[in-house]
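Let us work through a complete example step by step.
Step 1: write down the sequence.
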Amino acid sequence: MRAADVVELVRLPAALTVPGDSLAGAAAAGWPCGARTAALPFASAAFYWAGMALNDWADRDLDAVERPERPIPSGRVTPSEALAVAAGLTGAGLACAAVAGRRPLAVAAALAAAVWTYDVVAKPTLAGPVVMASTRVLDVLLGAAGDRAAVGPAALVGVHTLAVTVLSRGEVHGATSTQAWTAVAATVGVAAGAVATGRRRPRDVVLAAGLAVAYAAAVLPAQLDAARRPDAGRVRRATGVGIRGMVPLQAALAAGRGAAGVAAGLLAAVPIARAGMRRVSAT
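Step 2: predict the structure and record it as tokens.
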């Protein structure tokens, strides 16, 4: 198993869309883990990579028909190797969360369980998108150590994830216009919510509003294109844009809670993630 194959298996660059979850949650809760919060974005990334490896392990038979170029059906990675990667990364995520304390570790355990439940059990079912959304909700709460102050931002990230996941089910055979228009409506609602959940300090509101507009501007064009003609190609593009659009959303949520520096750092990762996902598919 070559390093390049592992990079493709775990969708390495796409993990740059994840650390902002825990940072937005930490900002909303007033940084309850203090300096130890620094370990939580690494936990988020590890869980994300574990989920991608586990996804390909669980979908190996389907991918042999629909996506034979992926690492497992192409023979570059064996199923047992993919499962071992998923298990190892899950353990790494739990270890990183433990650095931040018992409460983050408890949330991380629930997050790990949700990731494995989605990939192994729920993905092909009607509950699949909801379970996937729950993983991102828990990821935000991870940074907040479960504090209720982060429920609002977590819910917004969950709604965005739910919409993107529902739409992504049409990546191979196309989606319906209803699914695509629902994603459009969700994006508009989440953008508005990102402003409403912030503090009342004028500078925080203004910055959050600007970043919420940036989020909507990044995501809506591809979703509108898919709504007008929901073929597989347009749906794949809208899904990829939706995944990358998580970063400006996280930045808006962090900025709205006074963490302008965090927001700036997250936005700096956008071009890196975009360039990486041109080489390694995020889906």
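Step 3: interpret the result. The chain has one domain: 3-279.
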